[in-house]
Structure formats: structure tokens, C-alpha cells
Specification:
The structure holds two protein chains of two kinds. Chain A is mostly helical. Chain A contains five helices and no strands. The longest helix of chain A is centred in the middle third of the chain and has 28 residues. Chain B has five helices and five strands, in the order βαβαβαβαβα. Chain B has a five-stranded parallel sheet, sandwiched between helices. By secondary structure, chain B is α/β, with parallel strands linked by helices. The chains are: A mainly alpha, B alpha/beta. At the A-B interface, helix 1, helix 2 and helix 3 of A face helix 1 of B.
């Protein structure tokens, strides 16, 4: 089973991916990445309560869908730490080794908080 | 002045970040974009917007990207519509199934939006590479 409590040294952001995103909007990369971030935050606000419920009910079918969506969405925004956490959840659920329902929501919430903090810092620096 | 009708792209993806990313890139390149997040009502949207190309995520609520491709190819109106699939499941077996079902091409995440745009440019401009999948 892959650990959800990722090492603190796990890279928060995928700098190469973020540079690619910034290059898509030469006129205003800051605004473009902020727009993407706002979409992600909105999606998180909709999906996190469902993730919590799925963890409480040990509903693996719902959890796998949310983990898949969040893995891709976080990856598309260069949030590598958060994406990796959800990839691990998804893989553990797929291979039947997932046994961290109790810790999953809080680990995800913490990873979300630190990832957003890191991305906010990146955007300010643009 | 030459007037050209904007090519229409239909995007189906449950990830709003992905939709925004593709939407931005495609609109900047002069395409008209329609998007939806659910696989269940795609045909209705496609009938209304008559797209020149569609981009589907593989895993969707309502209906999978694979099933969407299969259903689109059964519809005479969309038999030759170029369909791009974007997926996180990049293994050869998945790609083979998608291409056999009639997907025009498959991109695995993480992908280059510029490469996707280039592919869309080619597929919407060059009708000779659009096959009949029936």
C-alpha cells in the first residue's frame, strides 16, 4: 500500500508544468493561472464534502471517482503533492490495499491547504 | 477580407480545470467551444452545436469516453467526426480499445496543450485524414 501521509519534502508544485501553463497566456499568465486555481477551488468545495462522506461510509466506489477526478485536476494545475496523494488513494483502492479511510479526508485537507499556499506564493512571484 | 466560419469544438470533461485550460487555448486559436461535464447528455449538445471535432475525457460521470465514442460512431451524423480522447490511463490496451472503437487519437495526461491544439488544427483543416469509422 502506498502511504497517504506523504513525506514533507515531497515537491508541492510541478514547476515545469506551471511554466508551461504560464506560457499559454503570454499577455497575463498571472490571471490565467488564478482563473484555473479558482476553478479548482470551486471543484474542491463541491467534491471535498463528498469525499468526507465516502470516507465515513467506507464507500470505495464513490471515493475512487473523487480521487480520480482530484488526481487529474490537481495534476492539470501543477499541484504535484496533492495529485500524488490522490493517485495513491486511487491505486490503493484499485488494488484492494486501501485501509486508511479514517485518515484520508484530513490528509487530503492538509495537502490541499499546503498546495494552495505554495501555488499562491508561485502566482505572487509571477 | 476573407470570412471563415469558426470551427466548433465540443469538450466533455468532468474536470473544470481541464475545461478551462482547453477552452482558453482553443478560443485563443479562434475556435468556438462548447463544454459539458457529464457524459449523459452529450448527444443532445452535439446535435445542437454540430461540432467539427470533439474532445472527451475517458472517465466521466454518466457515461465513459469509450461508450461515448461507440455511441457516436453508431450515429450517422457523427460517423466521421474527429474525436480526441484525453485519459490518465495511458496503457496500450486502453489506447487500443479506444482506437478500435473509433477514437481518432488518444492523449495521455500529462499532455502538452500546444500539441493537442496542433492536432486539432490538423484534424479540422485536413478532411483527408478524417476516416469513416462505420
Amino acid at each position: 500500500m502506498k502511504n497517504l501521509l506523504l513525506n514533507a519534502s515531497t515537491q508541492q508544485l510541478d514547476a515545469e508544468h506551471l511554466a508551461m501553463l504560464a506560457s499559454l497566456s503570454e499577455e497575463d499568465p498571472k490571471r490565467f493561472i488564478l482563473d484555473l486555481l479558482n476553478s479548482f477551488k470551486k471543484s474542491w468545495a463541491e467534491n471535498f464534502p463528498q469525499l468526507k462522506t465516502a470516507c465515513e461510509k467506507k464507500d470505495s466506489a464513490s471515493l475512487i471517482k473523487i480521487a480520480h477526478l482530484m488526481n487529474g485536476s490537481a495534476g492539470n494545475l501543477g499541484l504535484s503533492h496533492l495529485s500524488l496523494l490522490f493517485r495513491n488513494v486511487e491505486e490503493n483502492l484499485h488494488n484492494g490495499t486501501f485501509n486508511t479511510y479514517a485518515e484520508c479526508a484530513s490528509a487530503a485537507e492538509e495537502a490541499y491547504r499546503t498546495s494552495i499556499e505554495a501555488l499562491d506564493g508561485y502566482i505572487k512571484g509571477l | 477580407m476573407e470570412f471563415r466560419e469558426m470551427k466548433r469544438i465540443l469538450i466533455v470533461d468532468d474536470d473544470p480545470v481541464m475545461i478551462k485550460l482547453l477552452d482558453f487555448n482553443l478560443k485563443k486559436a479562434g475556435y468556438a467551444v462548447t463544454a459539458c461535464q457529464d457524459g449523459s447528455s452529450v448527444e443532445k449538445m452535439a446535435e445542437q452545436t454540430n461540432p467539427d471535432l470533439a474532445v472527451f475525457d475517458l472517465i466521466l460521470p454518466g457515461r465513459s469516453g469509450l461508450k461515448l465514442v461507440q455511441d457516436f460512431r453508431k450515429n450517422t451524423k457523427f460517423k466521421t467526426l474527429p474525436i480526441i480522447i484525453i485519459t490518465q490511463k495511458g496503457n496500450e490496451h486502453t489506447k487500443e480499445n479506444l482506437l478500435n472503437a473509433g477514437a481518432t487519437c488518444v492523449f495521455t495526461k500529462p499532455f502538452s496543450p500546444k500539441l493537442v491544439l496542433q492536432t486539432i488544427n490538423n484534424l479540422t483543416k485536413n478532411n483527408s485524414i478524417v476516416k469513416d469509422y462505420s
